Amino acid sequence: MINNPLVEFQRRRKEEEKALLKIFTNRIKESFLREIHRKMYEMHPDFLTKFDLRFDYVQNATGNDDWQFDYEVYRNIVGIHRFNTIGKTVQERVAMEKSDAYKKELVDAVYEHILLRSYTSLYFRRRQFVSGDEFIYFPVPYKLFAICIRGLQILNEYKDPYREFYVNIFNKSLAALALIEDNLLDSAYPICRGVIELYIKLLMLVDFPEALKMHDQLVHLEYLKTANNGEMPTEFEELFKNRKNKSQTSQIDYLHYGWVDKVKHYHEIERNKPYTFNSLFDFLKELAPDEDAKGYFEFIPILYNRCHAFTHGNIGNSGYPLLHYMELTMILYMVLNHTFRMLCTDSKNDHLINGIDIIESIAKDGEKMIHQYNRRDDEMFETFYKPKG
């Protein structure tokens, strides 16, 4: 006897939903996830237009199709809700899940993520290397990914004298976000350290463009050194002999930071080890126009130093992946937020990505993330990892 096709379709849909919900076991209450998923269809039915649901042989054959849109909606719901409940007690989380106002806020946030998907989840993996929380669907890293893709898109059309810095910052940030996506968190720290170094150099050279020519010259000489079995080019020897601070004798330090000789008043302020990265931090802090700016240049070195142990392989992942997510995302947020605004100003572009002011949107999530980070303790982490049911 042939089953009723409608009944069979409904049965399969229920089985599919049950299978999908199991993926997120212990991360979110199942009934709540199902309710928010249903509300997406009720409040923002046009979200389906953001997926390419045409029949395409290549997409179907390669698996790169958008037909699994429900799975992506679930991933966004879980990621955003997990982010919103960081630092909340069990009682506070339950109260949020009962609140109609919060449900609407969550559905709207998921919809915003879907609007950004051509700059974000279109590039994400379907499976993680190391299973666990999908931090890439938390609002801040999700929107940082969009900023990187949009930034590189702008740079394809805009020729900037600092183009290589911008490209490298966005590319390395994407590499770090990809590692965060796969829960290879300890491996992302060295890359984030490199992102900070590029960012600080960019700030210095934007403020003191007269040093850019010498910076580029030293970069070229380092390429020649590498190609010549590590032997310093003759041109470098002449530069090094005429360096401003003769007490510093490291050729490698000068090769990397000798361009500061062209920065006005730099050596008057930085007399001790001027050809080092930490001296760039000190110099920018000295020039900071107010206490907020000074605090900014005090906090970044703390995160920068946090990367050292991971860079040298001394420590690996801790028992709390959430802590690593926070530190890594803080670094990328502080760098990319400012870098993207600088690029948009220089290139005369607005901050819109698919109609969303990404800087305004990420600022709200960034403030929440900073608040969460400042309140971190063992109890917060233990509560976050308690099974949800």
Describe what this molecule looks like in 3D:
The protein is an all-alpha fold and 389 residues long. The chain has two domains: 115 residues, no CATH class; 207 residues, no CATH class. Helices cover 66% and strands 1% of the residues. The chain contains 19 helices and two strands. Strands 1-2 form a two-stranded antiparallel ribbon. Strand 1 and strand 2 form a beta hairpin. Helix 14 runs antiparallel to helix 15. The longest helix is centred in the last third of the chain and has 27 residues. The protein is elongated, with a radius of gyration of 24 Å.
Low-confidence stretches: none
Q: Tell me the helix content.
A: 55-70%
Q: Going across the major beta sheet, what is the strand order?
A: 1-2
Task: Briefly note the structural class of the backbone.
Answer: mainly alpha
Q: Which strand-content bin applies to the residues?
A: under 5%
Radius of gyration: 24 Å
| Coarse shape | elongated
Helix count, per DSSP? 19
Q: What is the residue-mean pLDDT, rounded to a whole number?
A: 91
Give the termini separation: 40 Å
